[in-house]
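Comment thread on ticket #2218

A.B. wrote:
> Attaching the input chain for the structure job we discussed in standup.
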Amino acid sequence: MRTLIEKANILVEALPYIRNFYGKTFVIKYGGAAMVDEKLKCAFAQDVVLLNFIGIKCVIVHGGGPKINKIMTKMGKKPTFIQGQRFTDKETVDIVEMVLGGLINKEIVSLLNSHGGKAIGLTGKDGGIIKAKKKAVKRISPETGTAELIDLGLVGVVKQVNPEVLLSIEKDGFIPVIAPIGSGDKNTTLNINADSVAGAVASALKAEKLILLTDVEGIRDENGNLIQTLNKKKINSLISREIITGGMLPKVAACLNAIRCGVKKTHIIDGRIPHAILLEIFTKKGIGTEITK
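C.D. wrote:
> Ran it. Output below, let me know if you need it in another format.
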């Protein structure tokens, strides 16, 4: 009986959140261990389908860097990175589009559908969802000490998101699953950071939440303690003190941009925890770091 009462209490705790979020849109960036471990994949799909059934609209944006590296290596092409970013020539972008828009995207669609969802796979090129431009990256030349542009090839940044296709899909109860590929000038295919795409999509949809699944607990302070809530001022301080660095920087930038464009809250959570999405959204304490205005 005690176990049954505990289950009832969990449902009661979730009730006000379900009421508040009914009819709202969550954009979820899916990546890391949650895309690899079978139990975590199952838990992720269950979370998304449950949210959809109770009236919360979900849009999924996924990554897939490790799988791209694996396929490239099998095809005899060595992945190349410059300042932590993939150099993407024409041959590489073809592989990226094949892996992200084909293999990984359809696996996620099948996963959600197998758990009772109605998912549809897309890339940013479909329906003109994502218009992009080539990414300009600068570095200080060791020879001259002056700033110089680095050519990353066919790597892009989001210029514009057209939400009409996504709104139409959501209206009919489907779950859009988006690969982070966009159309550049002259219909050039551009590879885009998935965190940035998720933030831009959330902004265009005026989503209630942007949720980034990662392989870390969240954002930590200088003592290694998890920070549950942050705002722009505190984030800028952590960046200036080099506490937020590396791969967390684009995630934080995506969150801040989304907040600036009208998204209510953003969350960076540990996708290695089963049902991380439900634990973050439907409990008072949550499990990760939320970023607010």
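A.B. wrote:
> Thanks. Noting for the ticket: Residues 180 and 194 are 5 Å apart (CA to CA).
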